[in-house]
């Protein structure tokens, strides 16, 4: 998922004044009048930190370039001879910048963060409920995993069971790839909805779809990881 870093912000940060000279800062990192570093605006999120709209298509080259420039300007080493307040602000901004870059450079984390901002998902929330269309396959997979564990405990030959689980792992890995494709499509729909100034109901429908896909992805990814763990134990 990638975009233009020069796109307008989706929300305007509240006006702010410099803590040192009281000149208007317009939420800039440094006061345009006296040059002092400024605290983060209360309503700043990771998108606005990079002057981005809340879109899911982000230009990686531009994001990295802006990150490096900001990292250099905000680095605490530049403030060792400044006041304690400026040192604290530098640490705060540098830490926040690293968090923002880590999230925005990852397509899946970016979707999850957007959903948190839009009130559709709590931080760290991952619903672990099997998608209805996968219930039968998940049931069969769990049966095979139980058989593998029992056979391992009994010291039986695991070749046949391992081969069956390898096939199941491949099947679910393909499903994970398909979900990633659906997630990309839904992300494009979200960006299109913002461009078209779509209604709240239409935007919410896309957010619901993104949330559903994230939950499905998380569930399938954990299934694949669980099978891989069991198979690794079977061959060790």
The parts where pLDDT drops under 50 for at least 5 residues are 2-14
Quaternary organization = single chain
- Structural category: mainly alpha
Tell me the overall shape.
elongated
End-to-end Cα distance, whole Å, is 38 Å
Count of alpha/pi helices:
7
Question: What would the average pLDDT be, to the nearest integer?
Answer: 88
Please bin the fraction of helical residues: 55-70%
Largest sheet: none
Our Rg estimate from Cα atoms comes to 24 Å
Beta-strand content estimate? under 5%
Number of strands: 0
Order of helices and strands: HHHHHHH
Write the layout of secondary structure elements.
Blueprint: H1 46-49, H2 60-74, H3 84-104, H4 107-117, H5 135-154, H6 159-195, H7 200-235
Helix pairs in contact: 2-3, 4-7, 5-6, 5-7, 6-7
Question: What would a concise description of this structure say?
Answer:
The chain is mainly α. The protein contains 7 helices and no strands.
Tell me what the structure shows.
With 236 residues, the protein is an all-alpha fold. It is built from 7 helices and no strands. The longest helix has 37 residues. The chain is elongated. The two termini are 38 Å apart. The N terminus is likely disordered.
Keywords, please?
disordered N terminus
